[in-house]
Amino acid sequence: MRVSSLSIWCFTWAALSLRLLSGAALEPRSVVVLVNGVAVTSGELDAEIDRLAPSSVAAHGKSADKAALRKKAIDELVVRELAYQKAKQQKLSVSVVEMNATVAKIKGRYKSAGSFSQALAAEQISEKDFMLRVEKDLLLHKIYKREIDDKAIISRSEVDEYYRTHKARFLEPESVWLLQIFLKNAQQDAKTKADEALAKLRSGTPFFDVAYSYSEDDYRVVGGDYGWVHQGQLSPELERFVFSATPKMLVGPVHTTLGWHILQVVEHRPAWQLPLEEARPKISDTLHHQRLTQMREEFLRRLRENAHIEYVAP
């Protein structure tokens, strides 16, 4: 199940200990918003803000940033509560096995049972409230799976149709496997060094070794190996040399506005159509992401349609 793109369905228990560790004073819990009559408290809001951004950023950011963060946190809490209520309406449930496994995982993040109890006390959360929050989190995952993930499955026929109607997108351009040694114009003896490098190559010194010793760009550490480069990626002044070169032929030194270049094409590959089966994983991922977004937006719209949300002034 892909849930990472929808953070609203997850509750981060690391937030329990943030203010405890910082030594910040606790404030009385007050109601921030009522969602169909159910209160969302300032304590939940604080925890959600800690989840969305580090507490130091939340505390020291600009007023506008803090206001935007607070609004985002409230919006996510509202949606989470609506989704939870929907899960209960659909009579979704959490098994004892699921609860025990999740609780054990959460408690395992703390050094001892005592430190875990301290974290709960610091956040004014009872053991019962903790168990309810765990159940809520698990139910949110279940409602997400039912209402979004299970409805975002992409069929083979959809992938086939996308490939057929967007075939030009999978036309791979003409490309070369390029090796290059580059010396910057700023070096007064750049041309001399380029000639030296070319002489070493012609005497049989491996391209990797010469590039590592002479080249002045980031590809030096990989022996000047640029990998596959397709038309349009290089400057026009270099491209005409590269795409007219035969494999293994040394080209250069070529002078451009950037500096001196020594080039070698390892392999030349003409434009070719990527087969459907090779394109299938990428198409499937693209369509799945689009469908997830669509299903999420539709689900959130349905949740809010008949909801009664009352914001309490701070």
What is the fold-level CATH name, i.e. the topology of the largest domain? Triger factor/SurA peptide-binding fold
> Rg to the nearest angstrom?
30 Å
User: How many helix segments?
Assistant: 12
Sum up the overall morphology in one term. Answer: elongated
Distance between the termini: 37 Å
Would you identify the CATH architecture of the largest domain? Answer: Orthogonal Bundle
Compute the number of structural domains.
2
The low-pLDDT segments are 1-28
Specify the CATH class of the largest domain: Mainly Alpha
Q: How many DSSP E strands?
A: 9
How can the largest sheet be summarized? Answer: 4 strands, antiparallel
Based on secondary structure, the structural category is: alpha+beta
Quick take:
Helices cover 52% and strands 16% of the residues. The protein is an alpha+beta fold. The chain folds into two domains: 7-155 and 289-311, Porin chaperone SurA, peptide-binding domain (Triger factor/SurA peptide-binding fold, Orthogonal Bundle), CATH 1.10.4030; 174-270, Chitinase A, domain 3, CATH 3.10.50.
Key phrases:
314 residues, alpha+beta, Triger factor/SurA peptide-binding fold, 2 domains, 4-stranded antiparallel sheet, 3-stranded antiparallel sheet, 16% strand, elongated
